[in-house]
Amino acid sequence: IKLLIASSYIISGIGMYLWAKEEFGKIPGFTAALLYLFAPFHLSEMHFRVSVGMIVAFAVVPFIFYFCKKTLSANNILFIVLGAISITLLILSHITIATITLPLIFSYCLFTIMKKDKKKLALLKISVMLLLGLSLASYYIIPAITEVKYTWYSQGVLIGVTPRPFFEYIYSSSFFGFLFQGRHGEYLLVVGYAQLLVFFLAIIQLLTARNKKSKIKPI
User: Fold this and answer.
1) In this structure, are residues 35 and 73 in contact, taking their beta carbons and an 8 Å threshold?
2) How far apart are CA 87 and CA 89, in angstroms?
3) Are 171 and 28 in contact (CB under 8 A)?
4) More confident residue, 139 or 161
5) Is the pLDDT higher at 28 or at 209?
6) What is the pLDDT of residues 123-143, one digit of tens each?
7) What phi and psi values does residue 181 have, to the nearest 5 degrees?
8) Nearest 5°: CA angle at 195, between 206 and 38?
9) Could you give phi then psi for residue 187, rounded to 5 degrees?
10) How many angstroms separate the CA atoms of 63 and 153, rounded?
């Protein structure tokens, strides 16, 4: 189990680097991998809760984005198959993470397809990848949907989860606690100071680039 957790953690950083490097370049890819590896939630799941399924899901998610990018940029059926296998692994590892992530992946693919010349071909490749991934995991998805009424999910509540005030997800009461553990040993869910800083810097960079572009007069 420890070997699985350690290898999943390392693989998650590699996957994030590969995708971000493909999308933005080497330095942004390295930065994204560091932020992904040292996100408080990622570390807390690994050290405190030891949620094996969620840790494996963290390792699979970047590779899905990476294979989607490669599928749209290269004419190689191998990337379609690898992307489908990654989607299957995500669903089998943690269905909740898959439910949250798959719409984001589909939106990312649509946004990328809009910049392509052959939009129909690109949409066909992504559709085949998604359908193949869902089909491979159908032996798990179908019983999960049909028999969910026999589980506590049907009640629409999360057992053991107590909603906290909004700012507690932004600010850690443990101040500089490395894993954001509470003062009484409780499990805290915090976004992360470095992640928030990069988020706001990215917004500033986008606004600055947009203003510069609007000031350029056509010849």
Assistant:
1) no
2) 5
3) no
4) 139
5) 28
6) 999 999 999 999 999 999 999
7) -85, 145
8) 140
9) -90, 115
10) 28
162 φ, ψ (degrees, to nearest 5): -110, 120
- Whole-angstrom CA distances from 49 to 11, 61, 93, 169 are 19, 20, 16, 17
Q: What is the dihedral of CA 69, 195, 97, 177, to 10 degrees?
A: 150
What is the mean predicted confidence (pLDDT) over 97-110?
Answer: 91
Report which residue type is found at 38. F
Query: Which residue is it, tokens 């509470």?
Result: 182
Give the predicted TM-score (pTM) of the model: 0.82
What span, in angstroms and rounded, lies between the C-alpha atoms of 70 and 64? 10
Of all residues in the chain, the percent with pLDDT exceeding 70 is 84
Amino acid, res. 9: Y
Following DSSP, what letter does each residue of the chain receive, concatenated? -HHHHHHHHHHHHHHHHHHHHHHH-HHHHHHHHHHHHT-HHHHHIIIII--HHHHHHHHHHHHHHHHHHHHHHS--HHHHHHHHHHHHHHHHH-HHHHHHHHHHHHHHHHHHHTT-S-HHHHHHHHHHHHHHHHHHTHHHHHHHHHTGGGSGGGGT--TT-----GGGGTS-TTTT-TT-B-TTS-B-----HHHHHHHHHHHHHHHHHHHHHHHPPP-
Q: Give the pLDDT band of residue 190 (cuts 50, 70, 90).
A: confident
Give me the residue label for tokens 């996957």. 15
**Between 29 and 74, whose confidence is greater?**
29
Q: What residue type is 161 in one-letter code?
A: V
